[in-house]
């Protein structure tokens, strides 16, 4: 019986409260959108399987539970992240101005080995609002910021309409993959476990 190998990629989503982090994640994982504002999702993360270069990976996407407004997010949130997704609302300048802080906070908290090359992806969200008439952060401005931080990939998204969400996560997964290609989570299936136990017994191994 062939054993199943999967790779776990941890992705965290950061940005000001209200930019649409939870909505983007829900749109990607559950294909759902709600206009209602919910500060928490009641879970630390959601997972979704994704195929990249003919291999299956499990994306583990960590969203804040609204605590980004008033307190730090805690070490468990940042620990072992393979990619950090930064989000701003293209209609709110302050959310764009906060990106430097979020990026710095991430680098301080997670302390990656290679600070300069850690994979970030930026999403400019809510492009659907008011047919684009209330937009204050241009694509050019966002791209210039990304270029100044070592060419961070940039996507304009609408969690409401689902636009670009799938494409963005494909890029996120590919970038997460660059970070820790060797970190594998081995998930034996039940048959494997039973066979292993049987073998242990017959070889007299007590461990
Ligand atoms: N029109 C529109 N509204 C959005 C979009 N993304 C999120 N929202 C709304 O913005 C509010 C905040 O979204 P939420 O996902 O809770 O933001 P979070 O605090 O960053 O997690 C909610 O009312 C959402 O319905 C979007 O792409 N377009
Ligand atoms: Mg949220």
From TrEMBL:
Position of the signal peptide: none
Membrane-protein topology: Lipid-anchor
Subcellular compartments: Endomembrane system
Sorted UniProt keywords: GTP-binding, Lipoprotein, Membrane, Methylation, Nucleotide-binding, Prenylation, Protein transport, Transport
Xref: Pfam families: Ras (PF00071)
SUPFAM superfamilies: P-loop containing nucleoside triphosphate hydrolases
Sequence similarity: Belongs to the small GTPase superfamily. Rab family.
Name this polypeptide is given: Ras-related protein
Taxonomy of the source species: Eukaryota, Viridiplantae, Streptophyta, Embryophyta, Tracheophyta
């Amino acid at each position: 019986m062939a054993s199943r190998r999967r790779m776990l990629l941890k992705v965290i989503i950061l940005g000001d409260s209200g930019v649409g982090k939870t909505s983007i994640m829900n749109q990607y994982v559950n294909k759902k959108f709600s206009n209602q504002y919910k500060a928490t999702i009641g879970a630390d993360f959601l997972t979704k399987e994704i195929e990249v270069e003919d291999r299956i990976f499990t994306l583990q996407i960590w969203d804040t539970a609204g605590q980004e407004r008033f307190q730090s997010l805690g070490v468990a949130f940042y620990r072992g992240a393979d990619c950090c997704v930064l989000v701003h609302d293209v209609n709110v300048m302050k959310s764009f101005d906060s990106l430097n802080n979020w990026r710095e906070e991430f680098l301080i908290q997670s302390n990656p080995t290679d600070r300069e090359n850690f994979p970030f992806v930026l999403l400019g969200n809510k492009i659907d609002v008011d047919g684009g008439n209330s937009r204050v952060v241009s694509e050019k401005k966002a791209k210039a910021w990304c270029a100044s931080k070592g060419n961070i990939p940039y996507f304009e998204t609408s969690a409401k309409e689902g636009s670009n969400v799938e494409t963005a996560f494909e890029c996120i997964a590919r970038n997460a993959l660059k970070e820790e290609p060797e970190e594998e989570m081995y998930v034996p299936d039940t048959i494997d476990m039973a066979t292993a136990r049987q073998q242990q017994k017959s070889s007299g191994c007590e461990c």
